[in-house]
Amino acid sequence: MDGKNLVVILLSATLVVVMVFVTRLPATLRSTAGLLDCSPWCTSSDLKDSTRLLHVSGDDGPRHPLDPLTIRELNRVREVVKSYGPFKNSPYALHYVTLGEPEKQAVLGWKTGDPLPPRQASVLARAAGKSYELTVDLLTGDVTTHETGPHFGSPMLTMEDMVAAAVAPLASAEFNRTITQRGVDLTDLACLPLSSGWFERKIEDKRRLMKIQCFSNKGTANFYMRPIEGLTVLIDLDTKEVIDISDEGKSIPIPKAANTDYRYSALPHNKKSSSWSPNPISTEQPMGPSFTVDGHLVRWANWEFHLKPDSRAGLIISRAMIRDSDTGEMRSVLYKGFASELFVPYMDPSDAWYFKTYMDAGEYGFGLQSMPLDPLNDCPRNAHYMDAVFNAADGTPYVRSNMICVFESYTGDVAWRHSECPISGMDIREVRPKVTLVARMVASVANYDYIVDWEFQSDGLIRVKVGLSGILMVKGTPYVNMNQVNQEEYLYGTLLSENVIGVIHDHYVTFYLDMDIMDGSNNSFVKVNLKRERTSPGYSPRRSYIKAVRNVAKTEKDAQIKLNLHDPSEFHVINPNNRTRVGNPVGYKIVPAGTAASLLDHNDPPQMRGAFTNNQIWVTPYNQSEQFAGGVYAYQSHGDDTLAVWSERDREIENKDIVVWYTLGFHHVPCQEDFPIMPTVTSSFDLKPVNFFESNPILGFPPNQEKDLPVCKAAAA
């Protein structure tokens, strides 16, 4: 092969590999002109335009103390750090730039119309192999340097890290030769940058490492189903040097592309023409949505909260308050809530799989991996879209359009109902429809898509829901049928199709919940145990009953909860300083679901890093520096700065400003229905009022009336 042809092939391969990630780079705004408008079919004279203009963050100035950094402010950060001493004569990268949030009391005391507290940017950066924590005063340009402490690990990856790492192997003649020997054309190559984890090896403490694995995208967009199994390239993230190439899968064929493409346009006709498909369904709002979005402040029904995007946390809810229907006052529920960390360990200890133990937020950036939402499919009509402004490694700001959507949801569910039958002598049917407000984001972290919803209900409940979707990360195998597998051999998963194994894995999503119940930050955590009690002899025909026993947690270890079906309990966060009319402390309770628990050995390095999953519930005293359950520096971390480590101090939490941490857990044993795409699997937990109101707030919400709804008919043939 002559040099000219080799250059063409390498350039083509580089383009293909980069295209794997290009959707994560700055995207242009999407037009709403093509959205379906059914207004000609509706006869309601009050029908308003059902399409919503996209909200562009642009360069709007901040209006709230918690508003995210604007384009102008990010440009200010970029100019300031260029002149920062260690960065003047050395290449540097800004890994995480976010608002340096004001002190909590300053935010709580702020009222609309007041001057904003001084605006600051919090920066995690790297230069010359060292991590830096900086605070930039956006008015004065002053830079404050903070000690990073005696920790291991480094900040989350930049997009430039990932793209450069994915193409780095192409500079290796040995790698290119190996790809060709495996029967793959370099122009059909798609490679993924995979965090390498930490496994107590000296090299991991001296260098930022990444592993690259590749796939063939020939014949399908779903290259995940065509792994070049056993081929793993270890690279130095800073120098892009190829350190090692391991190829232990030479005898394993690359799975076929047939019937793997997920694009509807690419499906064969027989796949599209199913025996049944639903007619289009659209929920109309003839008077428009009943929520408002003012900058980052959302108001709906009796709720008000602050909503913003973040490159690491994704979607952040702050200052969630609900109106008391009796007094008309806004009452605090949640100061701040977000997905703090995601831990995804795969259960295959072989050379090409053992390291797949990802921290999706702390390593890749949950917000950084959020793609623009697709109107009508990700979010319904009348949704409001919110853009994000993030920064490239050199600090240059860019807009991620449509990252968050807000919409009202009505699926025909009932919020409350009651009917009286003729026995009572009353003919009564009272029903209230269940309408909720949803704030949604979707993060596409390589093959997996995480759909995160914060759903607010008119009865005061907040439901936090996570949906797992996307595509499996599969393993190549020589087997095409289970009858070829020896009884003694374990596959570490399920044979899904010819030459394809779906490896068993877990997902843990740990949420940070700074609960501020009812006009004060000082709260207490109460475990309400349900205990069986026996009745006294002769007292009742009953022999037993259930008794609620309330135990107030004094210190952190009292509030470390491993959920147990044989220990039925409720978990309350109360304000002991505020009581209802009849004397109950006001509060909210955590209603668990998604209760899968980690089965890994506590001394297994991945579990040491992910020790925040050792309990489903933790409670810590508020500390502004303790927000990321896996630590600030999660990449190649040792587990020495996690929620589990902080809690070992066993600090006092009774009647204190406290933070609750809840982990949604999923065990995933793949099945054939997960091939070649996975149906969305969801789980959620609730924050539910418990003696927070004097009575049920649903009582004051009206039922639907036919006169208020549009009259629609199908389009004329």
Automatic annotation (TrEMBL):
Post-translational modification: Topaquinone (TPQ) is generated by copper-dependent autoxidation of a specific tyrosyl residue.
Sequence ranges assigned to domain Copper amine oxidase N3-terminal in this UniProt record: 155-255
Key words, A-Z: Copper, Disulfide bond, Metal-binding, Oxidoreductase, TPQ
Pfam families from the UniProt entry: Cu_amine_oxid, Cu_amine_oxidN2, Cu_amine_oxidN3
Cofactor binding note: Contains 1 topaquinone per subunit.
Any GO MF annotation of the entry: primary methylamine oxidase activity
EC numbers, comma separated: 1.4.3.-
InterPro entries: Cu_Am_Ox_Cu-bd, Cu_amine_oxidase, Cu_amine_oxidase_C, Cu_amine_oxidase_C_sf, Cu_amine_oxidase_N-reg, Cu_amine_oxidase_N2, Cu_amine_oxidase_N3
Superkingdom of the organism of origin: Eukaryota
UniProt-listed GO biological process terms: amine metabolic process
Keyword Lyase: no
PTM annotation (2',4',5'-topaquinone): residues: Y448
Limits of the Copper amine oxidase catalytic domain: 283-698
PROSITE patterns linked to this entry: COPPER_AMINE_OXID_2
Broad EC category: oxidoreductase
Cofactor(s) of this protein: Cu cation
Residues the record marks as active site: D360, Y448
Protein family (similarity comment): Belongs to the copper/topaquinone oxidase family.
Subunit structure: Homodimer.
Protein's UniProt name: Amine oxidase
